[in-house]
Amino acid sequence: MTMPTQPRHRRPPPHRRRQAGFTLLELLVVLVIIGLLLGLVGMRLLSNVDRGKVTAATAQARVLKTALDTMNLDLGRYPTKSEGLSLLVTAPKDAAGRRWMGPYLEAGVPNDPWDRPYQFEMDESGRQVRVFTLGADGKPGGTGADADISVPERP
Question: In CATH, which of 1.10.10.10, 3.40.462.10, 3.30.700.10, 3.30.70.141 is domain 31-151?
């Protein structure tokens, strides 16, 4: 006669079994901590992006100013408002077109880092040109990333 064998491992009764996993409170605490960390890191990253755009805009404005000065040496004049900065890559239709030695920019006229065209203005004598962008907000004035960027700087 064989005796029935008992299982070697006994399971505790269902009401005493501990459930595996996390409680809702533990998950909420972790989510709050992650949110705080993302907020702190995100603000630092955004300030670095703005600073990078200001630096890029300043460098591009310097390149445009140099290209305009070089073109002025060839043509004897800066572009008119109607010709715009496109005169750096396209020869003028007037007689000065024979002296045009461009294109003065390899990849065309860039937009500023906020995807707006650079602007330029000449002094009253027509001998100096200033290249500028209105910054992140696209409005005159401002501070930080919203400040105007000008080469040479406004007096």
Answer: 3.30.700.10
